[in-house]
C-alpha cells in the first residue's frame, strides 16, 4: 500500500518498539495511527499525544473514552 500510494520515505511501519525506546521513537514522527479493530485501552495513544504527535485512531473499545474527540460515530 505504501508503494501504491507513493509514500516511501514518508510512512514507516515500525512494528514492535522496545519500551525504553518508545518516547524517542515517537518524537521522530508527526502523526500516530492506531488502526486497531479491537482495543481495550490504547496506552500508545496517550504516549503519542504526550510527545505532541497528532493521533488518528479507530473508535473501538475504550478508545473513545480515553481519547474523546468530536466526530466519533
Word description of this protein:
With 73 residues, this protein is α+β, with helices and mostly antiparallel strands. The chain has three helices and two strands. The protein has helices at 22-26, 43-50, 63-66, and strands at 31-34, 54-57. It has a two-stranded parallel sheet with strand order 1-2. Strand 1 (31-34), helix 2 and strand 2 (54-57) form a beta-alpha-beta unit. The longest helix has 8 residues, at 43-50. It is globular. The protein starts with 21 loop residues before the first helix and ends in a 7-residue tail after the last helix. The mean pLDDT is 85.
Features:
73 residues, 2 strands, alpha+beta, two-stranded parallel ribbon
Q: Strands of the biggest beta sheet: in what spatial order?
A: 1-2
What is the CA-based Rg, rounded? 13 Å
What is the count of β-strands? 2
Instruction: Give the N-terminus to C-terminus distance in angstroms.
Output: 26 Å
Task: Determine the mean pLDDT.
Answer: 85
The main pleated sheet reads as: 2 strands, parallel
Q: What are the secondary-structure elements, in order, as H or E? A: HEHEH
Shape: globular
- How many separate helices? 3
User: How much of the sequence is in beta strands?
Assistant: 5-15%
Low confidence ranges: none
Output the structural class: alpha+beta
What share of the residues lie within helices? 10-25%
Amino acid at each position: 500500500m505504501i508503494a501504491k500510494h507513493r509514500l516511501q520515505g514518508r510512512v514507516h511501519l515500525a512494528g514492535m518498539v522496545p519500551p525504553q525506546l518508545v518516547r524517542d521513537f515517537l518524537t521522530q514522527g508527526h502523526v500516530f495511527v492506531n488502526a486497531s479493530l479491537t482495543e481495550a485501552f490504547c496506552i500508545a495513544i496517550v504516549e503519542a499525544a504526550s510527545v505532541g504527535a497528532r493521533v488518528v485512531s479507530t473508535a473501538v473499545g475504550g478508545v473513545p473514552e480515553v481519547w474523546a474527540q468530536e466526530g466519533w460515530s
